[in-house]
C-alpha cells in the first residue's frame, strides 16, 4: 500500500525563460542568502543515531589509499573533508568485525570517488560519451564480481575507480549469501545507470523540475546498496519473501526518499558554490528558504508514514532469529537517514563545522567562496 504525498511543485521542466537566463535569474535571487536549517535528527525522533568509535581503522585506510589509482588531489580532498570511517560507523554501528568495517569504508570511498567523476565539477560532468563508457565499465565490473561466474581481475586499461572496485566487491561477495549477492548486483546496476541518466538531465536546456529530480533520484540512488550491506555487516541474509514484502519495500523506499531530501538540504551550500565555480549547467533543486521549508515538511511526512509502516512488517510467530534479522534490516534502513545526517554535520564535506551551533542547527551560506 502506497501513501500519496502531494507534489510541492508542478510536473514538467521550467520553461518560461531562456535556459541561461533562467539559471542566472535563480542564482541572482539567492546569492549571498543565509538559511538556518534546524537539527535534521530532530525530524526523526524515534530513530537511533548511535555512532561507536572505530577511528582505529583510519590507519589501515591511510595505508590503503596510496595503492588506489585515483588522482592524489582527489584522494587528499576526500580524506580531509569527508570522514568515511565516521559514516561507516553511523551506518553499521552493530558490526563488530574490523575486517568487514574496513571493506565497508573502502566501498564508501569508492562510491564518492566514482560519483564525483560525473557530478558537477567532475572530469565527466559535461562528457556524455565519457560518462557512458564509465558506466559500461562499471556495470561490467559489477557483473564480473557478483555474477554467476565471478572474476576479480580488472581488464587491462580500466579506469582507476573501476579497478579499485574489483577487490571491494570480491570481499563483499565473500561475506554475503547468494540471495543478498544478487540483490546487491541489481541495486548497483540501478545506481550506475541512474547516475548516467541524471547526467543527461543536468545537461538539458531547461532546469529539471524538482519533483522529477526527486523521482529519478529515488528510483536509482546509491544508498540502497548500503542497506543490503547491513546483511554483510551483521552476518544474516533476508529471504526474498521478506525483502519483497510490501511493508519492507515501502520502508526501504521511504528511508531512501528521506535520505535524498536531507542530503539535498545539507549539500545545498556545496552544490551552489560548485555551480558558480564551474558552470551554470546545473542548479540545485533548493534555491531559497521557501523551497527549504517545503523539503523539511516532506521529510517530516515521509518519516511519519515510514514509522506507521512498521506495524505491517511480516513478523514470524515462531522464528525469533528471523525477527531479529528483520529488526536489524529495518534499523539499517533508518540509519541510512540518521547516519547521513549525523555524518554531514560532523565532517566538512558540505560545510564548515563552525556553521553548526550547539542546537545542531546549520547556517548555510550561499555566498560565492571558492
UniProtKB/TrEMBL annotation:
Top-level EC class as recorded in UniProt: lyase
Keywords carried by this UniProt record: Lyase, Magnesium, Metal-binding
Family: Belongs to the terpene synthase family.
An annotated Gene Ontology molecular function: terpene synthase activity
Cofactor (UniProt): Mg(2+)
Species whose genome carries this gene: Xylaria grammica
InterPro entries: Isoprenoid_synthase_dom_sf (IPR008949), Terpene_cyclase-like_2 (IPR034686)
Pfam family, one: Terpene_syn_C_2
Keyword Transmembrane helix annotated: no
Lineage: Eukaryota, Fungi, Dikarya, Ascomycota, Pezizomycotina
PANTHER family: BETA-PINACENE SYNTHASE-RELATED, TERPENE SYNTHASE
GO biological process, one term: isoprenoid biosynthetic process
Protein name, per record: Terpene synthase
UniProt EC number: 4.2.3.-
Amino acid at each position: 500500500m502506497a501513501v500519496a504525498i502531494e507534489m510541492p511543485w508542478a510536473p514538467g521542466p521550467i520553461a518560461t525563460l531562456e535556459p541561461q537566463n533562467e539559471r542566472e535569474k535563480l542564482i541572482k535571487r539567492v546569492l549571498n542568502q543565509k538559511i538556518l536549517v534546524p537539527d535534521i535528527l530532530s525530524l526523526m525522533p524515534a530513530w537511533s543515531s548511535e555512532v561507536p568509535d572505530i577511528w582505529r581503522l583510519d590507519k589501515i585506510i591511510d595505508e590503503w589509499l596510496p595503492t588506489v589509482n585515483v588522482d592524489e588531489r582527489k584522494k587528499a580532498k576526500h580524506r580531509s573533508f569527508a570522514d568515511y570511517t565516521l559514516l561507516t560507523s553511523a551506518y553499521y554501528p552493530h558490526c563488530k568485525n574490523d575486517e568487514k568495517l574496513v571493506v565497508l569504508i573502502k566501498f564508501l570511498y569508492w562510491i564518492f570517488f566514482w560519483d564525483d567523476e560525473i557530478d558537477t565539477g567532475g572530469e565527466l560532468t559535461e562528457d556524455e560519451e565519457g560518462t557512458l563508457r564509465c558506466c559500461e565499465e562499471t556495470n561490467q565490473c559489477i557483473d564480473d564480481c557478483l555474477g554467476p561466474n565471478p572474476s576479480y581481475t580488472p581488464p587491462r586499461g580500466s579506469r582507476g575507480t573501476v579497478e579499485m572496485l574489483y577487490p571491494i566487491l570480491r570481499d563483499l561477495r565473500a561475506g554475503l549469501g547468494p540471495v543478498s549477492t544478487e540483490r546487491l548486483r541489481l541495486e548497483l546496476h540501478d545506481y550506475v545507470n541512474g547516475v548516467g541518466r541524471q547526467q543527461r538531465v543536468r545537461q538539458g536546456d531547461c532546469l529539471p523540475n524538482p519533483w522529477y529530480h526527486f523521482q529519478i533520484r529515488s528510483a536509482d540512488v546509491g544508498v540502497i546498496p548500503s542497506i543490503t550491506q547491513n546483511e554483510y555487516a551483521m552476518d544474516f541474509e533476508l529471504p526474498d519473501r521478506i525483502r519483497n514484502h510490501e511493508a519492507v519495500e515501502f520502508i526501504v523506499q521511504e528511508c531512501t526518499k528521506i535520505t535524498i531530501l536531507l542530503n539535498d538540504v545539507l549539500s545545498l551550500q556545496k552544490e551552489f558554490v560548485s555551480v558558480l565555480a564551474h558552470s551554470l549547467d546545473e542548479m540545485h533543486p533548493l534555491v531559497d528558504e521557501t523551497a527549504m521549508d517545503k523539503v523539511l515538511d516532506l521529510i517530516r511526512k515521509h518519516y511519519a508514514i515510514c514509522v506507521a509502516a512498521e506495524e505491517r512488517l511480516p513478523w514470524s510467530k515462531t522464528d525469533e532469529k528471523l525477527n531479529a534479522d528483520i529488526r536489524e534490516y529495518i534499523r539499517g534502513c533508518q540509519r541510512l537517514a540518521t547516519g547521513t545526517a549525523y555524518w554531514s554535520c560532523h565532517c566538512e564535506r558540505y560545510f564548515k563545522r563552525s556553521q553548526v551551533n550547539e542546537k545542531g542547527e546549520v547556517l548555510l551560506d550561499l555566498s560565492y567562496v571558492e
